[in-house]
Protein backbone atom coordinates (compact mmCIF):
# COMPACT_ATOMS: atom_id res chain seq x y z
CA UNK A 1 0.00 0.00 0.00
CA UNK A 2 1.48 3.33 -1.07
CA UNK A 3 1.20 6.00 1.66
CA UNK A 4 3.55 8.87 0.76
CA UNK A 5 5.26 10.24 3.89
CA UNK A 6 5.20 13.87 2.71
CA UNK A 7 1.39 14.02 2.64
CA UNK A 8 -1.22 14.49 5.37
CA UNK A 9 -4.34 12.32 5.64
CA UNK A 10 -7.87 12.33 7.03
CA UNK A 11 -9.92 9.58 8.68
CA UNK A 12 -12.21 9.87 5.62
CA UNK A 13 -9.29 8.69 3.41
CA UNK A 14 -8.42 11.96 1.70
CA UNK A 15 -4.79 13.01 1.23
CA UNK A 16 -3.52 16.59 1.40
CA UNK A 17 -0.36 18.10 -0.09
CA UNK A 18 0.33 21.58 1.33
CA UNK A 19 2.41 24.08 -0.66
CA UNK A 20 2.37 27.51 0.97
CA UNK A 21 -1.29 28.41 1.51
CA UNK A 22 -2.55 26.04 -1.21
CA UNK A 23 -3.66 22.47 -0.46
CA UNK A 24 -4.05 19.83 -3.18
CA UNK A 25 -6.58 17.16 -2.18
CA UNK A 26 -7.44 13.70 -3.46
CA UNK A 27 -8.43 10.28 -2.14
CA UNK A 28 -5.91 7.72 -0.98
CA UNK A 29 -4.86 4.53 -2.69
CA UNK A 30 -6.69 2.64 0.06
CA UNK A 31 -9.93 4.57 -0.61
CA UNK A 32 -9.88 4.06 -4.37
CA UNK A 33 -9.18 0.37 -3.80
CA UNK A 34 -12.20 0.07 -1.51
CA UNK A 35 -14.44 1.95 -3.96
CA UNK A 36 -13.38 0.01 -7.05
CA UNK A 37 -13.37 1.43 -10.56
CA UNK A 38 -14.04 5.18 -10.46
CA UNK A 39 -16.42 6.22 -13.24
CA UNK A 40 -17.17 9.87 -12.35
CA UNK A 41 -15.89 12.66 -10.11
CA UNK A 42 -18.32 15.52 -9.43
CA UNK A 43 -17.12 18.78 -7.89
CA UNK A 44 -19.63 21.63 -8.04
CA UNK A 45 -18.03 23.80 -5.34
CA UNK A 46 -15.45 25.61 -7.51
CA UNK A 47 -14.92 29.21 -6.30
CA UNK A 48 -16.85 28.50 -3.08
CA UNK A 49 -15.45 28.83 0.43
CA UNK A 50 -16.26 25.74 2.48
CA UNK A 51 -15.90 25.00 6.17
CA UNK A 52 -13.80 22.09 7.38
CA UNK A 53 -15.58 18.73 6.89
CA UNK A 54 -18.18 20.08 4.43
CA UNK A 55 -18.84 18.03 1.28
CA UNK A 56 -16.90 19.42 -1.71
CA UNK A 57 -18.04 16.81 -4.21
CA UNK A 58 -18.71 13.15 -4.85
CA UNK A 59 -16.87 10.25 -6.38
CA UNK A 60 -18.86 7.61 -8.22
CA UNK A 61 -17.66 4.06 -8.59
CA UNK A 62 -19.36 1.21 -10.40
CA UNK A 63 -21.30 0.14 -7.29
CA UNK A 64 -21.43 3.22 -5.04
CA UNK A 65 -21.31 7.01 -4.70
CA UNK A 66 -19.28 8.56 -1.87
CA UNK A 67 -19.15 12.11 -0.56
CA UNK A 68 -15.81 13.92 -0.53
CA UNK A 69 -15.10 16.01 2.58
CA UNK A 70 -12.87 19.09 2.63
CA UNK A 71 -10.23 18.60 5.35
CA UNK A 72 -9.82 22.31 6.16
CA UNK A 73 -11.68 25.59 5.72
CA UNK A 74 -10.84 27.26 2.44
CA UNK A 75 -11.83 28.36 -1.05
CA UNK A 76 -11.94 25.72 -3.80
CA UNK A 77 -9.80 27.39 -6.48
CA UNK A 78 -9.20 24.60 -8.96
CA UNK A 79 -10.71 21.29 -10.09
CA UNK A 80 -8.62 18.69 -11.89
CA UNK A 81 -10.38 18.87 -15.26
CA UNK A 82 -8.52 15.77 -16.50
CA UNK A 83 -10.93 13.78 -14.32
CA UNK A 84 -13.88 14.82 -16.49
CA UNK A 85 -12.60 12.63 -19.33
CA UNK A 86 -10.38 10.26 -17.34
CA UNK A 87 -11.91 9.58 -13.89
CA UNK A 88 -9.89 6.35 -13.81
CA UNK A 89 -6.80 8.47 -12.99
CA UNK A 90 -8.06 8.33 -9.39
CA UNK A 91 -7.52 4.56 -9.55
CA UNK A 92 -4.27 4.46 -11.52
CA UNK A 93 -2.44 7.49 -10.05
CA UNK A 94 -4.27 8.75 -6.92
CA UNK A 95 -1.39 10.86 -5.57
CA UNK A 96 -0.32 12.66 -8.75
CA UNK A 97 -2.56 12.88 -11.84
CA UNK A 98 -5.63 11.73 -9.87
CA UNK A 99 -5.79 14.74 -7.53
CA UNK A 100 -9.24 16.33 -7.26
CA UNK A 101 -9.16 19.93 -6.04
CA UNK A 102 -6.88 22.74 -4.94
CA UNK A 103 -7.91 24.88 -1.99
CA UNK A 104 -6.70 28.25 -0.71
CA UNK A 105 -6.35 27.50 3.01
CA UNK A 106 -8.15 29.91 5.37
CA UNK A 107 -6.87 28.57 8.70
CA UNK A 108 -3.55 26.71 8.70
CA UNK A 109 -4.03 25.65 12.34
CA UNK A 110 -6.64 23.15 11.10
CA UNK A 111 -3.81 21.21 9.45
CA UNK A 112 -2.63 20.13 12.91
CA UNK A 113 -5.60 17.74 13.22
CA UNK A 114 -4.61 15.78 10.10
CA UNK A 115 -2.89 12.40 10.26
CA UNK A 116 0.69 11.74 9.21
CA UNK A 117 1.51 8.70 7.06
CA UNK A 118 2.32 6.50 10.06
CA UNK A 119 -0.96 7.30 11.83
CA UNK A 120 -2.93 6.80 8.62
CA UNK A 121 -1.27 3.40 8.13
CA UNK A 122 -2.43 2.41 11.66
CA UNK A 123 -5.97 3.60 10.85
CA UNK A 124 -6.35 1.43 7.76
CA UNK A 125 -4.79 -1.61 9.46
CA UNK A 126 -7.18 -1.40 12.43
Shape: globular
Mean model confidence by pLDDT: 96
N-to-C CA distance: 14 Å
Backbone CA Rg: 13 Å
- Low-pLDDT parts are none
CATH level-3 fold name: OB fold (Dihydrolipoamide Acetyltransferase, E2P)
What name goes with the CATH superfamily?
A: RNA polymerase II/Efflux pump adaptor protein, barrel-sandwich hybrid domain
- Reading side by side through the largest sheet, how are the strands ordered? 1-2-3-9-8-5
Helix content: 10-25%
Please, how many helices?
A: 4
In total, how many beta strands? 9
Based on helices, strands and strand pairing, what is the structural class? alpha+beta
CATH architecture: Beta Barrel
The number of domains is: 1
Strand composition percent = 25-35%
Largest sheet: 6 strands, antiparallel
CATH class: Mainly Beta
Amino acid sequence: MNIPAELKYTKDHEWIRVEGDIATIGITEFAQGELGDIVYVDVDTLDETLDKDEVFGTVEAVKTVSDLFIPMTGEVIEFNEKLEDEPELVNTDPYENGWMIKVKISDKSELESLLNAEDYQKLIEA
